[in-house]
Amino acid sequence: MVVLESEVIDPGDLVPRAPVVTVLGHVDHGKTTLLDAIRETRVAEQEAGGITQHIGAYAAEIDGRRIVFLDTPGHEAFTMMRARGASVTDVVVLVVAADDGVMPQTQEAIDHARVADVPILVAINKIDKSDANPERVKQELAERELTPEDWGGQTVMVPVSAKKRDNLDTLLEMILLVTELGEHKANPKRMATGAVLEAKVDRGRGPVATILVQDGTLHVGDNFIVGTHVGRVRALIDDRGQPLKEAEPSSPVEVLGLTGLPQPGDALQVVADAAKARQIALLRQNQAKEKALVSRGTRQQLAEGEAKELPIIIKADVQGSAEVLAESLAKLGDERVKIRIIHTGVGAISEWDVLLASTSNAIIIGFNVRPDRNAAGVAEREGVDIRKHSVIYNVTDELKKAMTGLLEPTTRERQLGLAEVREVFKVPKIGLAAGCIVTDGSITRAGDAQARLVRDGVIVHEGRIGSLRRFKDDVNEVKTGIECGITFERFSDIKTGDVIEAFTVEKVATV
Question: Boundaries of each Tr-type G domain copy (predicted)?
C-alpha cells in the first residue's frame, strides 16, 4: 500500500488560525445579502474596488483578526463536501428573517449543521422591517433546541440588518468569540494540506481549483496530489485576485498547475516526491474505478429487486413538474423499497447533480431536461444512471418496475452528434432554418435518426430533421467542424444559441 510521507510535527509550532464560516438559511432570508454586506464593509474597505474576482471564498477582518467565509450555493453543497470527506467549516451562521421566522429550509440547514457537528450561531436578519419580530424567531428556534443565551441557553443570536449594515461588527465579534472556544490551530511550518472548494476549466489557464489551505503552508512550486490528480503549483491567486508566493492556513486561494479537474471536497496534500505522487494518484484512480463498479452493482441490485432504498435526484424544466414528480415518486415506496428524494431542481442536469448522485448512489430523473456536456462526461466516468423522460406516467411506471425487480431496459438512446445554432434565417415556403456548425459527432437525417432542440439545457422540441443542407445541396450527413443548414419537420421556433442533438433509439437485448 502506498502512503504519503510522514512529517515530524512539533506541537510548539501550532499557532491560532482564522476560523472558517459557512452561512446557511432559507432562500429568501437574506443569506446572499448578508454575505455581500460583510464582503463590502470588511473586504472592500481594505482595497479600493473590492474583490476583483470571485473564487467561492473570501476573508474579512475585524480588529486585525481574519474570518474566512465560504460562499457555498446552499446546504446541499455543504453536505456533499462532507460526504467527500472535507470537514472545512468551524461554525455555521444560520440566517433567519425576523419577519418570516423558521421555514422548512431553515430546519434543513439546522439538520445539516448538526450532522456536521459544528456550532451554530444565529443571525436574525431584517430587523429593520416594520413587521420584524425577533422574539418570535427565538421562540421558534428554542422549540428546535436552539435556545438563545439571553433565555438561559447556549446559542448565540445576533439581530442584524444586512440591508442597512446594522450590527455586522457585532456578528463578526460573536463569530470570533464562538470559535475561540474551539482553539483552532494549525502548523504553518509543515507541508500543506487543504480541501477543494470549487474546480473549473479556464480557457486560458486550464484546470483551476479553489483550495482552502487547512494546515501547513502552500508554496508556488510545491508538488501535490488532489483526489486522483497530481500537479505542481504554477501560481497562487488570493480572494482579491492578487498573486501570492505562499498561502498559510485558513487561506482560500486559486491554484493553477493541475493535470486534471478535482471534485469539491477532495483533499489536497503537498508531497516532496513527484514520482510517489503519481503512484498514489494511480492507486486512487484504480480505487475510484472499483467504487464505480460497486455503484453499478448497487443499481444492478435495483434491477434484480434486491435494493432496500432507492435515492432519487429530480431535475425538471419547471418547478411545478419537479414538485409533482417528487410527490408522485415518494408515494411509490413500500415496506420493501423506500424511495428517497435527495434533491429536486429546475434546469439542465449539471455536473453538481451528477457528483451528488455519485456520492449517494442515486439515480437522476431528467424530466424534459438534458445533462450539459460536462455533466454527461462526469456521469459516464462516475457510472451515474441518468434516465430522461417527458411523460410523468413513464417515470412512475419505470420506478414501479424497478421496485418489483422488473426494470429491464429494452431501449437505449445513442447520441449521434451536436450542432450549435449560429444564426436563424427565413427560407421561402419552408419557414425558419438554422445555420449551424456541427460541434460533436455528426448530424444525420438518414434511417431512424431523430433530433431534438435544446435551449439552455431544456428540451424545446423533439422530432425529425426536415432538411439538411450544405450550401444549396441536400445531404444525408454533416460531420464535426462543418457548417450546415437544418430545419425540423413541422417546427420552426429556433433561436440563435440553441443546440440541435441528433440521436437514435436502439433496442437492447436483456442480459
Answer: 16-189
